[in-house]
Amino acid sequence: MAVPVARRNLFQSRARLIISVGGIALAALLVLVLDGVFAGSEKDVTVFMDNTPFDLVVSQRGVRNLHMTTSFFPEQALRSIEQVSGVERVDPILFTTTFLIAGDLPTQRGLAYLIGYEPGRLGGPWAWAGRPVELGPDEIVIDIRAAEDFGVSVGDEITAAGRDLRIAGLAEGTTSIVNSISFVTFEGFQRAQGVSGTVSFALVLLRRDENPAAVADRIQAAVDGVTVQTRADFAESERRIVSDMSIDIMRLMNIIAFLIGLSVTGLTVYVATLAKVREYGLMKAIGARNSRLFRLVIGQAAMSLGLGLSLAVAVALVLQVALGAAAARIPMVVEPESIARIIAGATVIGLLGAVIPVARVAGLKPADVFRR
Amino acid sequence: MDSDSATTHRVNESREPIIVADGVTKIFGEGETKVEALRGVDLAVMPGEVVLVMGPSGSGKTTLLSILGALLKPSSGRISIAGIDVTTLSERRLPNLRVRELGFVFQDFNLLSALTAVENVQVVMDFAGVAHAESRQRAERLLGDLGLSGRLSFLPEKLSGGEKQRVAIARALANDPAVLLCDEPTANLDSKIGHDVVAHLRRIADEREKAVVIVSHDERIKSHSDRVLWLEDGQFKEMRTMAVDPVCGMAVERETAPARLELDGETYYFCSRGCMREYQEGIAAR
After folding, report:
1. Interface predicted TM-score of the whole assembly (ipTM), two decimals
2. Within chain A, which residues score under 50 in pLDDT?
C-alpha cells in the first residue's frame, strides 16, 4: 500500500474538501432535483390512467387523450362493446375540461378535468382526503389542494361547467402540473352540459387472461366511429401531448441544468487539480514518473466525484421522501435513469476536467521546482 | 575565508568521483534573447565531500544544480552520476536515476503539504518501489536520526522551519542516494537552525559517504565545506575575498561591494546602500 497522496490531498483542508466535493454534489443535486421534478410532474399528468384500473379505453374516433380534447360517441355503442368477446364490463364516463370558480379572486379559479361517472363504477375518485362520500347530482368532489388554493372546503359551493355545485368531498392525489381533476355524477354532468344519449369514454374491463390488443382489435372492428386503446397507450398519449404543450420548458430547463451541472463538475475537478500542480512538479523532480502522477490526479478526481455524487444522490432521495411526506405541491421522483445519467455525465466530464491539467502535469519541467 | 582555508574535512580521494561535470554549457533562448548560463563548467565531487558553490545572483548556480540533478539537460558537455552518463539517458530513465541516486534539499523545503512528516519521507520510497512497511520503518529511523521522532505524524504546517528542512533532508536520504543537492538550504532559517542544518549535512557526508553539493549565499556554510567554488558569469572563477553584509547576511565581494563603511577602525561591506543605511540607523538608535 503506497502513501495515499490522493486521499490526503482531498481531505487536507476542510474548506477545499467542501469546495471540491460540495461543488460536485451541488451541481449533481441541481440536476437530480430538476430531473426529479420533471419526472414527478410527468407522472402526475397520467394520474387518472395510473389509478383507474381499466384495461381498454374507447373514445370518439381520433381522440387519444384527455388533455384539451372533446370526445362523444353514442351511448348505444356501449352495448356493442359489451358484446365483444373478452369484454367483462364497460363503464362509461363523461368528460370535459373546465374552469372551477370559487370566487372573484384570480387565485380562486383553476383549470380542471371534469369527469362524470356512475357511482360504484370506474371513473370516480380513487383516494379521498377524509371520508368517502356518495355524490348527489348537484354535488362535486374536487382535489384537496385545489380546495386549499381556492379557500373552500366541504359544504361550500363552487362553479364548474357553468353550474353551481356543492362540494361534497375532497379527493387526494388528483392534481398535476397542468390542472386538477374534479368528479361529478354521470347525471350531474349531463345536467350541467345538457347532454344525453352520449358518453365521452368507455372504460373497458377484460375477462381474465384476455389479450388487450386482440380485444381492442375486435372492438375496433365491431364498433364504428371509435378509437380503442390500451390503458398504457392512453397514458402515453396523454403524457406526450401534455409534455409537448407544457413540459417542454421544463425539459429545456432540465437540459440547461444538466449542462451547468456538468460544467461546474468539470471546473471543480479542474481547479482542484490545478491547485496541486506545483506539488506534482516537485514529485516529478524527486523521482515520480508521469504514470504515477496521472494515477494520483485521476484517483483524486474519482474520489471527489464519488463522494460528491453519492452525497447528491443521498440528499435527492431524502428530499424526495421529505417532499412526499409533506405532501408538497412540487412532485419529485428521483428515477434510477436520472441517477445513472448524472453519474455517467459527471464522471466523463469530471475525469476530463482532471485530464486537461494532467496534460499540463506531463509537460511540467521538474527543474521548475528550483524557481522561487 | 578563501577556498583553500575551507578545506578542513577529510575526503577519501582514493575513490572515483561520484559526480563529474565535463565542459558543461547551458544556453537558454536564441538570437538576441540568448543567455549563456553555464560556460564549459568542469567539476568532480568525491563521496563524502561537501562542495559549496557560491556566486552572485544570476551567475548560473541554480542552473548548475538543476543539471547536476538531471532535471535539466546541458546544451553541451557531459554529466556523470554514480558512473552513469546522464546526458545520454532517455527521459523515461531519468526518474529512476533521480529517485535512487539523487536527493534534493530546497530553500522552500518543498514538502507535500497534505502528507505528514513520515509520509513525506515515505513517498519517495514509494516511487522507488519500496514496500510500505519497510518504507515506514526506514522513514521513522531517518527522522529519528535527525531528532524528529516526536514529529512523525505532524503536517508540514505544524513544523518549524528547521524541522521542515530536517524532514526534507530525511526525504533526500530516503532511498540512500549517492548525492545530495542542496539549493540555499539555510536561506529561510535563522542563524542557529541554519547552522544545525548544515551540521547535519556535514555529518551525513562524513558518516554516510554522501557527496553533498550546496548552492548558497550563506558564508557560514564555508566552514563546513571541503571546497568552496565561486561561480560567476557561468564559469568557476577564483574565490574572491568575501565579507558578510552585517544586515542581510549576504556574501559580498570586498573589492566590488556596492557600499562600505569605516567604523571604529573596522570596514563593513554591504550588498546595497539600503543595507548600509539600515546599519547606520541601527547604530544611531543605540
Report:
1. 0.74
2. none
